[in-house]
Each structure stands twice: as C-alpha cells, then as structure tokens.
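queue> holo job accepted (inosinic acid)
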Amino acid sequence: MLTPKSTLITRQEIQSRVHEMAKEISRAHRDDDLMVISVLKGAVIFASDLVRHLTMPLSMDFVAVESYGQSTESSGIVKITRDTEADFTGRHVLLVEDIVDTGLTLRYLLQHLSGKKPASLEVAVLLDKASRRQVQVPVTYRGFEIPDAFVVGYGLDYAGRYRNLPDIMVVAEED
Ligand code: IMP
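queue> job finished
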C-alpha cells in the first residue's frame, strides 16, 4: 500500500510558481479571448488557482481522459471520456494539465484539440517528469521539473485519493 511520505513541493512554492506562470500567460495573451481547457480530474486545482491570476477575459471548459486506475504506471492507452463543449473557432486555447510523464496523454489531447481548429493551442503543465518522456510534446508553460517519483496532492491522485493534499508529496510503501 502506497501512502504520501515526503513533501516534494510545498504549498507556498506552488502558489508562487503558479502566480509567475499566470503572469507569463497574461503577458503573452494580453489581447486574446482565451479558452482554458483543463483536464479532469487532476488539473482542476491547478487550473482553479491559475485562472484567478489571469488578467484577460477567458472562458473555461473541461476534457476528461481515462486515468491510471489503481496503478502508478501508464497503460499507454488514452481515451477521452468527456469532450469539450465550446466552439473553438477563432479562440486561443490553453490546455492545462497537472503532469506530463511519458507524454502520451498530452500528445493525444493535442491531436484531438487541434482537430477543432483553434486560432492557437498552447500547453501549461504544473509538473514535468522529463526523464520519463517517450514522445515529444510541446509544453509552453512549465511549473516544475521533478524526478521520476510518483507524486500526489494539489489535484494529483493515487487510486483516486490524496487530491486534496495542499503540498505535492512523494508516495512510498507504508512501513
Ligand atoms: P503520461 O501520459 O504518461 O504523460 O501521463 C500523464 C497522466 O498520468 C497525468 O495526467 C496523470 O493523470 C498521470 N500521472 C503521471 N504521473 C503521475 C504521478 O506521479 N502522480 C499522479 N498521476 C500521475
């Protein structure tokens, strides 16, 4: 049984980095009517904090993908279980994701969303396990690069739990 053991990124570090990312996005999209698409369920807490620091007019939509289930390893099979509802025509889209690991989920989502013909499509990711990448994906805004460890908290789960932890923590076997 894996449980949260050590803090990797504190709530204060998260808040300050999310604020910085939002400033960068606000500068880049000052005059754009932005559409923020967050990936359910993991990115919801990150997206909620991020949008409250964004200064341009924006709307929000959601996409849900099949998660890891009980395991900490990706099956490599990605499936959309809830699609966006908004019309993408002429919209600048920011896809908000909690973590990029192998890159398979993000690659699939980017292919899917670009088929809806947005004016532009960028990606904001809070955590990047760069050493685990199997496919290259364009990450426009990145919060933290982290080592190859399974993390929970701030929206991220293990078997559906621990999303509510305010810090990002590494899981390990219970003693
Ligand atoms: P990828 O397709 O391998 O890049 O995996 C991306 C998805 O895997 C994320 O959206 C998360 O749902 C999940 N994931 C990857 N690493 C972790 C982790 O350390 N903790 C929790 N979820 C993770």
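queue> Helices lie at 11-28, 44-51, 104-114.
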